[in-house]
Design brief:
7% strand, 235 residues, mainly alpha, two-stranded antiparallel sheet
Length: 235
C-alpha cells in the first residue's frame, strides 16, 4: 500500500533526508547515490532550504533507518562505504513529475504553482504553470485507498497575489503558524521572486561544481592518479 501520512507522517529529519536524496538524484546524478557525509551536507546546505537545518550524522542515520523500514530509501553497499538512494516514486506512489513537486515542497516549504515551476527547472521541466497545477490538484484529490491527499492549497495570505501549496507528508499543516512566519519575513514575503531567482542561480553553480568534481574523480581513478595531488610544476 502507498505511503499514508495520516497513519505515520514523516518527521522533519526524515523529510529532509528523503527530499535531499530525491533532489541530488536529479541535479547531480554523477554523485548519486549519496554517502552519509554527502547526504548530511545536502540536508544542511543553506541555499534552497526552508528551514535551514543542522542535522548530525546520527540524526540522519536515524532518519534513514526509519525511512528504510517504510521502503522509502535503500542502502547500497559499496567496497569502501555505504551509499543511499531514494525509493520516492514507488514508496509514495506518485509519478516522477509529482515527486518533483513534493520534493520541492519538502525542501523549500509552501510555494505558489509559479514558484514551483521555476524551482523545478532542474528537476523536471513543466510546460507551463497549468501543468504544475494539474499535478498539484491530483495530489490534493488523492483517494483514501491510495493514502489520501499529499498536498493542500493554503488560504491566500494577506497581501499575497497567489495562494501557496503545502505538502502533507509531514502531517496536517498549521496554517496560522505559516501565516505568522510569512508576516515576519519568512517564506512568501515580498522579496520571494528575487530570492527564488538568486537561489536557482546558486543551486545551478553548486550542481555544476559537483558534476565537475565527480568527473575529475572518475578520470583520476581511470588514470590511477590521486586527485588531491597538484599537477607537475603547479605546486
Amino acid at each position: 500500500m502507498p505511503f499514508d501520512p495520516r497513519q505515520r507522517p514523516l518527521s522533519a529529519p526524515e523529510a529532509r533526508a528523503l527530499a535531499t536524496l530525491l533532489e541530488k538524484s536529479r541535479t547531480v546524478p554523477d554523485s548519486y547515490p549519496l554517502t552519509l557525509n554527502s547526504l548530511v551536507t545536502g540536508c544542511n546546505q543553506k541555499t534552497s532550504r526552508d528551514p535551514v537545518m543542522q542535522l548530525t550524522d546520527d540524526e540522519v542515520l536515524q532518519a534513514l533507518d526509519a525511512l528504510r523500514q517504510q521502503a522509502l530509501v535503500v542502502e547500497i553497499g559499496g567496497a569502501r562505504v555505504a551509499r543511499w538512494e531514494h525509493n520516492f516514486e514507488r514508496g509514495i506512489g506518485v509519478p516522477s513529475q509529482a515527486a518533483a513537486l513534493l520534493g520541492l515542497l519538502l525542501l523549500r516549504g509552501p510555494q505558489t504553482a509559479a514558484e514551483l515551476r521555476l524551482n523545478a527547472e532542474r528537476w523536471h521541466r513543466f510546460a507551463d504553470v497549468s501543468s504544475v497545477e494539474a499535478f498539484l490538484n491530483e495530489l490534493a484529490e488523492r483517494s483514501d485507498d491510495k493514502g489520501g491527499p499529499l498536498v493542500t492549497l493554503l488560504p491566500r495570505a494577506p497581501g499575497a497575489r497567489e495562494s501557496r501549496w503545502a505538502q502533507l507528508l509531514c502531517g496536517p499543516v498549521d496554517v496560522d503558524a505559516l501565516q505568522a512566519a510569512a508576516a515576519t519575513g519568512g517564506s512568501g514575503g515580498g522579496g520571494a521572486p528575487a530570492a527564488t531567482a538568486l537561489q536557482a542561480r546558486v543551486e545551478a553553480l553548486e550542481s555544476e561544481l559537483a558534476q565537475l568534481q565527480a568527473t575529475v574523480r572518475r578520470l583520476c581513478a581511470e588514470l590511477g592518479l590521486d586527485p588531491a595531488l597538484s599537477p607537475p610544476g603547479q605546486e
